[in-house]
Amino acid sequence: MKQALIIVDIQEAFFLDSENYLFNYEKVLEIINMLITWARHSEVPIVFIQHTDSNQDDDFAFGKPGWDLYHGLLRQPEDKVIQKTTWDAFYQTELAQYLQEQQIEQLIFAGAQTEFCLETTIRNAYSRGYHQNMLVEGAHTTLDSHVLNAQQIIKHHESVWNNRFVKIQPLSFLIRSKEGVQ
């Protein structure tokens, strides 16, 4: 089954000011970079999703320092970057066409924010027929809200998603599966 790694909205805006730091971001970034390394070794295409806000005052507006993909990601020039303007990486973007052209059957998700762009993209992927998707354990994060803290948001969404919209797997599962060990 041909896979693609989809990394959603890991952008500088989340690292410029401590009040915007993502929950457990150091560990999440470590896992995402391990995923990127695994994907390169396994010849799995890597797609970076980049939120682009139309409000020029927003940190995620095109060309603003916060708009750039995070400098600590192990990104290479050949990696695909797709800009989006909504929470959904499929909506009015080239993502669906790219995945079809690459004959991708399974999406592996990581990124931010759990309850916004990642949530919307995961559910839309399922609605588009991607029913074998994975989310790597510990490879997504968010910020505290006024109602729940980030850890509660993550736990809640994982309980809703797992074995419905994605299968949540540890990174070690991917590494073993590509080596032929199940």
Structural write-up:
The protein has 182 residues and is of the alpha/beta class. It has 5 helices and 6 strands. The protein has a 6-stranded parallel β-sheet with strand order 3-2-1-4-5-6, with helices on both faces. β4, α3 (114-127) and β5 (134-141) form a beta-alpha-beta unit. α1 (25-42) packs parallel to α5. The longest helix has 18 residues, at 25-42. It is globular and about 40 Å long. The two termini are 15 Å apart. The mean pLDDT is 95.
List the helices and strands and how they pair.
Blueprint: E1 3-8, H1 25-42, E2 46-51, E3 80-84, H2 95-101, E4 106-112, H3 114-127, E5 134-141, H4 150-161, E6 167-169, H5 171-178
Parallel strand pairs: 1-2, 1-4, 2-3, 4-5, 5-6
Helix pairs in contact: 1-5
Strand content: 15-25%
**Low-confidence runs:** none
> What structural class should be given to the helix and strand makeup?
alpha/beta
Gap between N and C termini, in Å? 15 Å
Order of helices and strands: EHEEHEHEHEH
Anisotropy-based shape: globular
The largest sheet, given as strand count, sense and whether it forms a barrel, is: 6 strands, parallel
Q: What is the count of β-strands?
A: 6
Q: Into which percent range does the helicity of residues fall?
A: 25-40%
Nearest-integer average pLDDT: 95
Strand order of the largest sheet: 3-2-1-4-5-6
Count up the helices. Answer: 5
Based on CA atoms alone, the radius of gyration comes out at: 15 Å
